[in-house]
Amino acid sequence: IFRSLARQIVMQYIVHTRMTDITFERELFDSNNDQLLDDEKLLATQVKEFEAISDQRLDSSYPFVVRIDGVSFRNYTRGFTKPYDQ
């Protein structure tokens, strides 16, 4: 009887402790999630500010060079004239 009673008490303690840990982890996740959302909003704002500053127009009377860099641009520019790729 004593062992089964002790076992019940230990099991209740473990379950209670684990539930407390789960609650704490949930609160920690929620606070970190809010921080991540704030960081994303800050980054989006900074990118928009940079785009507004760097929005420039080219004068059509002058020649210009465009460097395209990316994963799929090779396929995108397949039909373009590439005079320097000889």
What does it look like?
65% of the residues lie in helices and 0% in strands. It contains two helices and no strands. The protein has 86 residues and is an all-alpha fold. The chain has a domain at 2-55. The chain has helices spanning 2-53, 73-76. The chain is elongated.
Question: How is this fold's topology laid out?
Answer:
Elements: H1 2-53, H2 73-76
Summarize the structure.
This protein is mainly alpha-helical and 86 residues long. The chain has a domain of 54 residues.
Number of strands: 0
Helix-strand topology string: HH
**Total number of helices:** 2
Distance between the termini: 90 Å
Give the CA-based shape: elongated
What is the gyration radius calculated from CA atoms? 30 Å
Q: Largest sheet, if any?
A: none
Amount of beta strand: under 5%
Low-confidence runs: none
Helical content stands at 55-70%
Structural class: mainly alpha
Oligomeric state of the chains? Answer: single chain
The overall average pLDDT, rounded, is 71
Organism: Rotaria socialis
Domain tRNAHis guanylyltransferase catalytic: 46-86
InterPro entries: tRNAHis_GuaTrfase_cat, tRNAHis_GuaTrfase_Thg1_sf
Pfam families: Thg1
